[in-house]
Amino acid sequence: AEHHTARCSSPDFPEPPIRRLSTQQAQAPSPSAHRQAAAAMADRYSFSLTTFSPSGKLVQIEYALNAVNQGITALGIKATNGIVLATEKKSSSPLADQSSVDKISNITPNIGTVYSGMGPDYRVLVDRARKVSHTGYKRIYNEYPPTRILVQDVARVMQEATQSAGVRPYGVSMLVAGWDDGIEPEDDVEALVEGEGEKKPSKKTGGIHKGGPMLYQVDPTGSYFPWKATAIGKSATKAKTFLEKRYSEELELEDAIHIALLTLKDNIEGEMNGDSIEIGIVGPPADHLLGVEGVEGATGPRFRKLTPQEIEDYLTSL
């Protein structure tokens, strides 16, 4: 030990110089410390749903929208005489029974919906919409709710999940398609016609729409808005670009079905057939499903899903 100590302190083996840091260098954090601090700050805002980040965002909602953007592509097209909802039916395993996979659901006889995102969240919202339609609205007013009223209720439920503690946003976006009967213009309301001395019916509806096909989108934020044609899911941007080139105000339902299939064909991988594609339409009332005849004002359901054979026939005609 004495030999080792003497050797280290001898002139032949000088001690290494001690590097002294300046005060500024000693206090400056390393880049890794900066990254750790930024990550801790981001985690703080991403963990809390009800806390806005410094950039003015609710990070959990951003994550919910990401879940939608990673979902299977779905689209809706409004025609003059109906609406088309279309999506790809993709199961998690080739051993799964394809007939049990449903992405398009009916809410009322005239309203249907499709989704992109988390299936369990979608199922909860569909059950809620059915409950409101059948036991809430219809029991009071003796009719099913208009599409807009139903969409407002679903959007309210989704919005409440963005500002409540202990819950998370719904990771799903929905396209809701329906047919509203509307209200006929009131012929007995008179108004002066500018520049004329006589009175003519104003044809006002009291601010209520005149009915017809309606297409809405509902997002995890609780926002909802009407569309002529739109798409959601991982290929939404590409599908919307395709729809913009093909859409026309004068589209008939048959043409809209063909455009929907062409859009899916341009955006999905794999073979398209009646088992891999799901289509729902809102069209003319199916009075033959009523089971009764001669009842005044009775009409059959307008919403139905196409059978695999019907889809195969449309694919053959493309």
TrEMBL record:
Where is this protein chiefly located? cytoplasm
| CDD domains xref list | proteasome_alpha_type_2
Q: Which residues cross the membrane?
A: none
Q: Which PROSITE patterns match?
A: PROTEASOME_ALPHA_1, PROTEASOME_ALPHA_2
SUPFAM superfamilies listed in its UniProt record? N-terminal nucleophile aminohydrolases (Ntn hydrolases)
**Which residues lie within the region annotated Disordered?**
1-32
**Compartments, as annotated in UniProt:** Cytoplasm; Nucleus
Asked if the Swiss-Prot or TrEMBL record annotates the protein with the keyword Cytoplasm, the reply is: yes
Q: Name one GO cellular component term.
A: proteasome core complex, alpha-subunit complex
Q: Where is the Proteasome alpha-type subunits domain?
A: 45-67
What would be one Pfam family of this protein? Proteasome
Q: Which GO terms describe its biological process?
A: ubiquitin-dependent protein catabolic process
Complex and partners = The 26S proteasome consists of a 20S proteasome core and two 19S regulatory subunits. The 20S proteasome core is composed of 28 subunits that are arranged in four stacked rings, resulting in a barrel-shaped structure. The two end rings are each formed by seven alpha subunits, and the two central rings are each formed by seven beta subunits. The catalytic chamber with the active sites is on the inside of the barrel.
* Family statement: Belongs to the peptidase T1A family.
What is this protein's name? Proteasome subunit alpha type
